[in-house]
Amino acid sequence: MVLIGSFLPWIDTAVGSVSGMAGAGLWTFYACMLGFAGVLVPSQRLAAVQAALLAVVAVGLTGWQVGHVLNLVGTAGWMPGSGLVVVFLGGVVSAICAVRLAR
To answer: Which ranges does the record mark as transmembrane (predicted)?
Structure first.
């Protein structure tokens, strides 16, 4: 989810949309590659750490992006794009997986 959402539009405005790759989506893509590498690691604890890092980056950067845009222009004239929502939900799923792997 984070991989796909990083490339989708993060902010929709009346003028057009802003791609995630123009900003924080690039960093969520990098974190997604780290999380994907956690799938291939035989150590369960190391995979849990990598999933937790992905969750922190995905949820943290999407939260920062919303807060930053709210601080700049308020609530008028923009909406969260599909990519922002997908990356956030991917971060939540990654956090749930990290908790399950840690147990």
So the answer is: 20-41, 48-66, 78-102
Q: Classify 25 as helix, strand or coil.
A: helix
Provide the whole-model pTM: 0.90
Determine the Cα–Cα distance for residues 58 and 91; give it in Å rounded to an integer.
5
Characterize the bridge pairing of strands 17-19 and 9-13. Answer: antiparallel
Indicate the number of domains in the chain: 1
Range of the domain at 11: 2-102
Are the beta carbons of 65 and 24 closer than 8 angstroms? yes
